[in-house]
Write a structure and sequence with these properties.
Elements: E1 5-16, E2 20-21, E3 24-25, H1 26-36, E4 42-46, E5 49-51, E6 57-59, E7 70-77, H2 79-88, E8 97-106
Antiparallel strand pairs: 1-7, 1-8, 2-3, 4-7, 5-6
Length: 107
């Protein structure tokens, strides 16, 4: 099977599972906004451990029921759609880390 390459942008938003926006989990708000704006796909990854911007360790501990775990939300879409999405995303980016990079996808 022969594939073609298309240029897209990979957007990654780093946050914690305890982050909220308008009393909703931040990751859920971001996915809802992506769906509303017809983004074709988004994935939320749950990490085992990470160090946040405040330099504190976040990790899963089976003995601690109130675990703060890092999340990564990844969206791969056209640059125009990513730019539109970021403009309409209301979150305070002080509590998140956002990265973008050009990628090629096989279609």
């Amino acid at each position: 099977m022969k594939y073609q390459k298309e240029s897209r942008v990979s957007l990654k938003i780093y946050c914690d599972n305890t982050d909220t926006f308008n009393s909703k989990p931040l990751w859920e708000y971001i996915l809802d906004k992506a769906k509303e704006l017809n983004i074709r796909g988004a994935t939320v990854y749950k990490a085992v451990a990470g160090i946040g911007s405040n330099k504190s360790m976040h990790r899963f501990d089976i003995l601690n029921l109130s675990n703060t775990m890092p999340l990564v939300i990844e969206i791969i879409e056209s640059k125009d759609k990513i730019d539109d999405f970021l403009e309409k995303l209301d979150i305070n980016i002080k509590d998140t880390f956002i990265s973008m990079q050009d990628v090629e996808v096989l279609v």
